[in-house]
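Title: [Solved] Amino acid transporter transmembrane domain-containing protein 3D structure

Original question kept below for reference.
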Amino acid sequence: MPLKVDFQKDYKNWRPVKLLIRMALLVTSTMIAYVFPYYETLAAIVGSIFTVSVSFIIPCMCYLKLSACYRSWNYELLGIVGLIVFGALAGVLGTYSSIVEFALGAGSTCY
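Solution (posted by the thread starter after getting help):
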């Protein structure tokens, strides 16, 4: 649920409060954009770390824990370990490329 909707739920008929909440969210977003001019590269760093872990590594680890197929080597276990290795490699390479891009300042393109 969006932040705006969550706050405004309690103040249904209070138009000035709704307006103040919207203005506060707009000012806060603007300040964050001003403080972090390379926001897209920061988002890429965070995305490459957490998206890979949530998409590849954690589901495979949970499946291994629940199915107990890790006790003997078979094709299923080999595939799951392959997915975990692929996810870890993709996360490391994505994080590395995002950090290099952030360090070189490639996020400061002029439009």
